[in-house]
Amino acid sequence: MSAANPFHPLDHRLASLEPREVKWLCLLIEHLHDLRFGSLHLVVHEGCIVQVERTEKHRYDMNAAISLLKEDKGGPPDASNQHNPSKATKTRK
């Protein structure tokens, strides 16, 4: 970038946008703002955006998820106890 032109070439195009184009850009920025893993898919009909689809991926550490399940008393029963009732924890009255 030269010192004579400190502005990016896109700056000129942004200044000449129509209000509806600015609204679409703001909407797209909003959809992208907190997206960490995923994609944004635009559907265009006759030169106009008619639909925005956002696909988001959530990735989890399986070891941490298993630990949380074991700690959660309201979770599913331990799989090892399902087929062997003698190993299941017994409650006394």
What does this structure look like?
This protein has 93 residues and is of the alpha+beta class. Helix content is 39%, strand content 18%. It has helices spanning 9-15, 19-33, 62-71, 79-82, and strands spanning 38-45, 48-56. The longest helix has 15 residues, at 19-33. The radius of gyration is 27 Å and the shape is elongated.
Number of strands: 2
Low-pLDDT sequence parts: 84-93
Distance between the termini: 80 Å
Sheet with most strands: strand arrangement: 1-2
Radius of gyration: 27 Å
Strand-residue proportion: 15-25%
Task: Sketch the major β-sheet.
Answer: 2 strands, antiparallel
DSSP helix fraction: 25-40%
What are the secondary-structure elements, in order, as H or E? HHEEHH
Mean pLDDT score: 75
From the helix content, strand content and strand pairing, which structural class follows?
alpha+beta
Q: Can you count the helices? A: 4
Secondary structure topology:
Blueprint: H1 9-15, H2 19-33, E1 38-45, E2 48-56, H3 62-71, H4 79-82
Antiparallel strand pairs: 1-2
List keywords for this structure.
two-stranded antiparallel sheet; about 40% helix; about 20% strand; alpha+beta; disordered C terminus; about 90 residues
Could you give a short description of this structure?
The protein has helices at residues 9-15, 19-33, 62-71, 79-82, and strands at residues 38-45, 48-56. It is α+β, with helices and mostly antiparallel strands and 93 residues long.
